[in-house]
Amino acid sequence: MRSHAERGNDELAPLPVGRGVGVRAGFTTTLSIFPTIMHNKTLTELSAGLATGQYSSRELTAAFLARIQQHNPQLNAFITVTAETALAQAAAADQRRAQGQAGPLTGIPMAHKDIFCTQGVKTSCGSKMLDNFTAPYDATVVAKLNDAGMVMLGKLNMDEFAMGSSNESSHYGPVKNPWDLNAVPGGSSGGSAAAVAARLAPVATATDTGGSIRQPAAFCGVTGIKPTYGRVSRYGMIAYASSLDQGGVIAQSAEDCALLLNAMAGFDPRDSTCVDQPVPDYTAGLGDDIAGLRIGLPRQWFGEGLSNDVAQAVRAAVGQFEQLGATVVDIDLPHAPYCIPCYYVIAMSEASSNLARFDGARYGHRCENPKDLLDMYMRSRGEGFGAEVQRRILIGTYALSAGYYDAYYLKAQKIRRLIAQDFQQALQQCDVIMGPVAPSTAFDLGSHSGDPVQMYLEDIYTLPLNLAGLPGMSIPVGFGDNQRPVGLQMIAGYWQEGLLLKAAHRYQQNSDWHTKRAC
Amino acid sequence: MQWETVIGLEIHAQLATKSKIFSGAATAYGAEPNTQACAVDLGFPGVLPVLNEEAVRMAVKLGLAIDAKITPRSVFARKNYFYPDLPKGYQISQYDLPVVGLGRLDIEVDGVSKTIGVTRAHLEEDAGKSLHEDFHGASGIDLNRAGTPLLEIVSEPDMRSAKEAVAYMKKLHSLVRYLEICDGNMQEGSFRCDANVSVRPKGESKFGTRCEIKNLNSFRFVEKAINFEVERQIEIIENGGTITQETRLYDSVKDETRSMRSKEEANDYRYFPDPDLLPLDIAPEFIEQVRGSLPELPDAKRARFQSQYGLSDYDSAVLTASRELADYYEAVAKLAASDAKLCANWVMGELSGKLNEDGLEIGQSKVSAAQLAGMIQRISDDTISGKIAKQVFETLWHEGGTADEIIEKQGLKQITDTSAIEGIIDGIIAANPEQLAQYRAGKDKLFGFFVGQAMKATQGKANPAQLNELLKKKLQ
Fold it and tell me: CA–CA separation, A346 vs B425, rounded Å?
């Protein structure tokens, strides 16, 4: 297998400033005095660099803005770049540091998935419906990272309303996979994964309803964590399926995920589903030994449908965990075959109701010259929502309708409980469940677009976790036959993010897949 | 044919919380449009509801007051429909698991008591208001009311006349105000009612097809709308027609109900549990804490008024109709420390009359309980007569002050000095020999003439009982 470290950095040639990218003139020229590899540093390294004064937040921010200006036109990872406010935030962070009030994340640039409301900044959720929407408030996650002194570079592309597994449903066009511009980056957090993989941002927020953090992280060769449902506030995170949505992180490493999660997690009185549970220091256990860790491999996940190259890379990674002292046991998830229909009934039902507020009355897209109320609703929604969103609203509406509710929604909720029980039982035999993230590596752009069901099958290994509410990670563990990255999925019990991060970090200390660069 | 009316009521009581049921925005009435709606009430992308515990406490209060079962785990559900004043495209309500289960309420019509079953009471949020005037062909939306907590109280179809329906509604109205969970202001829509009405031949056990009359916001309208609807239905059936299940609107100007939408046009609300809210678990300790905070309820108070103050059932019922009135009465009775019946008469008579005349609530009375009690004390100790008291009360109402000051200033103190009264009587007898002769000849009616003359001479200040006694003696 050809190592991807050999790939040149020149594959993504600089292009003119693209849509929405406005870097203040003058900054690119000053960049030459800073080491160009600044963008390859991990959060921990950047934090140290800022602390020791190797560079200021303003310099660091300018470097990333330049990087975005250079590569985003091809990748389309950003919907909005907030260059001016970023530089102002960076200056404020530098000031805060000068006053001796800097925390570990102060002055570090990052980017938000465009599903998080950001006060005064366009929050589109990847949809034409919200193309004209400027959020009047900050999501709790956004406020927390602001408080930590982080610098927001901009808002990241995503599948429309987080509905998709390839980032092709975005109103702003598909994101390209930095490893291969013909491949999808995965979805729905495709912009987050691509931005981190292409080092356009050191770290990004993301959300995961059925795999939307783990699958794009796997496709783009980066590390992602979806915390336990209720660990991170959903307030200000535009809802797709409320009982499944959970915010998380996409970063270069488990250690970076831990750093960001420290700042993001915790109880929020504005979110009734957010759990009042103490947040441990996720960086505390990093580096600990994992001897004796019990790994469970679900039999159902290594059978038909899984491509050989992915299976091989995943098994090799598990082998390495064994070398680090872990033991392996086969486990069963007997209700696995029901996950996809169960998930899609629940997700689409909730979505059909969650998206009812986009009616053209108060904000968002409104059709021209509505004849009457019904016309306003029908045309505003018909024009504002893309095909995939409309499909899911229709299916969800159907599933909740009188006479069908018991057969679909109620039945799906019952199956959901059984699926959660499967995991509970499996996690009695092991500490961490491991398996593939997706059936294959990143597929080609356009290859699934004619077949929604095939697209839904992409989430077969990821969505059971959301149904159960468990935390999960994806870490890069190699490359497939087509030289596209392979991810390993890791799952632990409720509130066991620390365990996942510890195990992932231990692996990353003993491997270099996560250090491979796409560009 | 003899027809029987069957009525069930759904009453919406707006709960008197300071903030909304799922947000921290204020609930005060009458603010500038859209100034009391936060991002949550406006249904902005990403916002989430958080339940107001005070609303739950109020719902439990009502539940306990009607002997209902409090559901240990109730569930909030989304009722999905599109309307411009419904910001989220769904209303958060409760569906198959309401917070308050089966309860009961006793009513009384024409002296006959009856128990009305209360099926359930559930918590939900109110919608905003669509304003169709003054916008030049467009509609305005005011979302101040959006998210205001409502308790929807659903009765069993146990009422058999408009009078019973009104009695039930009044009883509930009084109860929510006793419990201080609703201000009961019907004009502002804080307490409103939908009536389900059907008719059936007397003796028939199956219900007829019902029609729902929406948004009745006064007792009078409830009575008139139901009576109109009953007659409408009977006429249709007697003419060989059938009733179609539908929602109707009452037009108070024309005094009629008219069709709003049929069953076929009804929305499929696609209820499902709201995934943004956890099930509402109510601990037994919470229920006991609420029970401990319950005030004395109307029926108990009415019974106590009879035993403690020796009032009639009628007087007790009138005085306990509202908690404020009952409190007022008790304050008067306590401060006056005298004849409780006399106090009741004054509260129910002169005071209520004045309040009605000026269109005031008891809480707005211009004469305080202390002022009234001070005056009643002067009646009891014979300082003034009941008749003079009316004059004193009149001054109290319009000018304020205390009864003692008014009596002093206006010289209204009763004359109780026997020799003084005798002197006056002697003068009158001397001045009216003819009448005296006629009286003594058997014309008893003339006794009143002498009383009148004496009162006139004393400007009404002679003690009536003494005057009567002395007059009788002197006239013989």
Answer: 97
The number of domains in chain A is: 1
* Cα distances (angstroms) measured from residue B48 to each of A389, A499, B18, B40: 21, 30, 19, 6
Q: What is the ipTM of this complex?
A: 0.91
Whether A478 maps to a domain, the answer reads yes
- Residue A1 — pLDDT band, cuts 50, 70, 90? very low
Q: Which domain covers residue A412, as residue numbers?
A: 108-519
| Structure tokens given for A462 | 């990821």
Each residue's pLDDT tens digit, B262-319: 877 778 999 999 999 999 999 999 999 999 999 999 999 999 999 999 999 999 999 9
Handedness of CA B368, B294, B217, B199 (dihedral sign): negative
Domain ranges of chain B: 3-289, 296-410, 418-475
Handedness of CA A260, A261, A266, A270 (dihedral sign): positive
Is A307 among the domain residues?
A: yes
Average pLDDT in the B122-145 region? 88
Is domain B418-475 classified as CATH 2.60.260.20? Answer: no
Catalytic member of A41, A57, A113, A440: A113
Of A57, A124, A192, A212, catalytic: A212
DSSP symbol at B11:
E
A13 falls in which pLDDT band (50, 70, 90)? very low
Q: Is residue A66 part of a domain?
A: no
Under 8 Å between Cβ of A473 and A508: no
Determine the residue type at B465.
Answer: A
Give me the percent of chain A exceeding a pLDDT of 90: 88
Q: Do A356 and B82 touch (CB under 8 A)?
A: yes
Min Cα distance A156 → chain B (Å) is: 17
pLDDT at B416: 79
* Residue B134 pLDDT > 80: no
Hey, is A223 helix, strand or coil?
strand
Locus of tokens 């200390």:
A509
Length of chain A: 519
Q: Is the pLDDT of residue B228 over 90?
A: yes
Residue A212 lies in a domain: yes
Which residues of B lie inside 8 Å of A (Cβ-Cβ)? 39, 42-51, 78, 80, 82, 84, 87-90, 141, 268, 270-272, 275-278
Q: What is the CATH number of the domain that holds A422?
A: 3.90.1300.10
Active-site annotation holds for A192: no
Say whether A188 is catalytic. Answer: yes
Q: Which of B276, B277, B278, B280 to mutate to test the interface with A (most CBs of A within 10 A)?
A: B276
A144 assigned to active site: no
pLDDT tens digits for A500-513? 999 999 999 999 99
Tell me the average pLDDT across B203-220: 94
- Residue by residue, DSSP assigns B90-101 as EEEEE-SS-SB-
Give the up-direction half-sphere exposure of residue A343: CA atoms within 13 A in the CB hemisphere: 30
Chain centre to alpha carbon of residue A24: 28
Better pLDDT: A519 or B63 = B63
Catalytic residue among A124, A169, A188, A233: A188
Check A373 against B276: CB less than 8 A apart. no
Are residues A133 and B51, on separate chains, in Cβ contact within 8 Å?
A: no
Contact A68, A200 (CB under 8 A): yes
Question: Could you give the strand order of the β-sheet that contains B76-80, starting from the edge strand earlier in sequence?
Answer: B90-94, B76-80, B272-273
Per mean pLDDT, which range of A210-219, A379-388, A390-399, B448-457 is the poorest?
A: B448-457
pLDDT band at A12 (very low <50, low <70, confident <90, very high): very low
Looking at per-residue confidence, does B313 or A6 come out higher? B313
Q: Which member of A237, A358, A362 has the closest CB to residue B46?
A: A237
Pairing mode of beta strands B246-251, B256-262: antiparallel
Among partner residues B39, B46, B276, which is closest to A273 by beta-carbon distance?
B276
CA–CA dist A510, A321 (Å, integer):
9
The tokens describing A378, both together, are 């029908």
Q: Do A349 and B47 touch (CB under 8 A)?
A: no
